């Protein structure tokens, strides 16, 4: 087990992301736009989960470095596109101007496209992964970020604006939109570690509940959070007429749902405690439960 703290691992992730996009001979500032959003901060939850899951599975976490960076590129591209006027129309993210406010809308679209494709390039070029593992990781990344994963969830989310949405549909949206990349973080580590099927199934159950925890907490913070900590204005979901766990269940109902998924995530991961030191992933549950931004 690594003796590094979460903050030390996040610092490693930030250092690896800084300057990962090199200037090109095409003499454009597209790379600057890509790097701007990669460097805009954030919790780095997804790459951190790759590292922590590998660590729990008794693997050298650095074996997942390229996978973790690729995942953060996919996440960052999705945020660039989410912020655009036809979607969430946000001027600020993490306390900084959004990409299209700095570089213009067409360049923001292309920066997102370029980050998406760069993600697959860096996994394909990863010398630390065996060919069969690399194919598994690439296939999982394509599935979880595509029309059956994050992009599909975002589509369903956009189609559901200004419409009444039931709880089942809301969970379907967020299992795909938010949960799919969190699931990839955990299961790509399982792919790299070559775990057995029962371990993989428990990690998948854990990731499902963790993803819903993350979204429910987001919904609560959007209404009750501290703007100075969030780096964006609260109430944007209400402003955009989006159904959320708070709008459907109320504050107490959303908190009860958060508790349910916290307990279910804990129960799933504790079944691995005889085989592995699961403390880092229990710490992630606590982080998701108590976070204020």
- The number of E-state strands comes to 2
> How do the strands of the widest beta sheet line up side by side?
1-2
Percent strand: under 5%
Average pLDDT for all residues: 92
Largest sheet: 2 strands, antiparallel
Shape: globular
Q: Identify the quaternary structure here.
A: single chain
- The total count of helices amounts to 15
Low-confidence stretches: none
> Structural class per helix/strand content?
mainly alpha
Rg over C-alpha atoms, rounded to the nearest angstrom? 18 Å
Helix percentage: 55-70%
Secondary-structure element order, N to C: HHHHEEHHHHHHHHHHH
Q: How widely separated are the two ends?
A: 28 Å
Keywords: Isoprene biosynthesis, Magnesium, Metal-binding, Transferase
Protein name: Polyprenyl synthetase family protein
Pfam families: polyprenyl_synt
Organism: Staphylococcus borealis
